Amino acid sequence: MEKTDNSKKNVYNLVIMDKSGSMGSIESAAIEGFNDVLSGVRKLAKDYADTKDQKMSLVLFDTSSMDEVAWNADPEKVEFLNHETYRPCACTPLYDAMGKYLTKLEKEVGDQDASVMVTVITDGYENSSTDFSLKDIKELVNRLKDKGWSFAYMGTDHDVDSVSVDLSITNVIKFEKNLEDTKRAFRRERKAKERWMENEKVFESSCPCYSYEDKLSFLKRSASHYYDEDWKEGSDNSSDSGKSSK
């Protein structure tokens, strides 16, 4: 991580979302849910405009295509999803989607003094990857976690706990495959990003001349508490680890 001066820091928001055929039953909820998250990132871009540059990436994947709807874009320039841009079909190459786009983002982030939040959303098991294995993805996730990257897994209609453990992701939301619960899960994702930014502001205000080690320690703390609604930077519970959430 390259320590910089007081110039604006980048915040990378990457969403990797399943668009396989089985997502069709919650198509409308997934569209509405992502749009709510995007609205939240747009608001954060305005609220923290003096110190942060929010960057939004959305990748939709199935075996027919992997679509970069947005890549490290200004959130205001990212279009909301609709039934034309989100059309579920085909199978679930989860490992290939994660491997391709995590590797791409890692190269672009490099050694910046930046925050990275990655969220994976799926309703089923990996079933069609050809380029990356589970072992590849677990090693990649662990390497990026060591750099302070945050990983979250939003899942439904499969053994979410088992898959997230296999992927080495501990921030987990399990949701029922219906309109109300899908929207609830996406609202929690929006709130998680808001808490991250609040906690980063507290950290940087209390430690304006932070070192590489200070910032990395903060990033790892925040990453482990991504969905923890009660955790605050500097509080007595800062040593607790994040847990899965239903």
Shape: globular
Q: What summary fits the major beta sheet? A: 6 strands, mixed
Tally of helical segments: 6
Structural class category? alpha/beta
Number of domains: 1
CATH topology: Rossmann fold
Alpha-carbon Rg, integer: 17 Å
CATH class: Alpha Beta
| Share of helix, binned | 25-40%
Report strand order across the widest sheet. Answer: 3-2-1-4-5-6
CATH homologous superfamily label: von Willebrand factor, type A domain
Average per-residue pLDDT, rounded, comes to 94
- Contiguous low-pLDDT stretches (5 residues minimum) are 238-243
- Share in β-strands: 15-25%
List the helices and strands and how they pair.
Blueprint: E1 9-18, H1 27-47, E2 52-61, E3 66-73, H2 94-109, E4 115-122, H3 134-145, E5 150-155, H4 160-167, E6 171-174, H5 179-206, H6 212-224
Parallel strand pairs: 1-2, 1-4, 4-5, 5-6
Antiparallel strand pairs: 2-3
